[in-house]
Amino acid sequence: MEAKSFELHDIVEMKKQHPCGSNAWKIIRMGADIRIKCQGCGHSVMIPRREFEKKMKKVLVKANQE
PANTHER family, per this entry (predicted)? Predict the structure, then answer.
């Protein structure tokens, strides 16, 4: 399986939808844990990197395209 590439401030799509109805999340912190912020309601969640890589579908918007 190929490693997924993502960077700080990318907007990514997760496999499960957030309860507010949005699927888009912005990466706001990276390290051993990754903090993502919901683009719909603004809620932020910190999850371990391995779990994030497993639950992420794809990058919707690269940080350098904004």
Answer: DUF951 DOMAIN-CONTAINING PROTEIN (PTHR38455:SF1), HYPOTHETICAL CYTOSOLIC PROTEIN (PTHR38455)
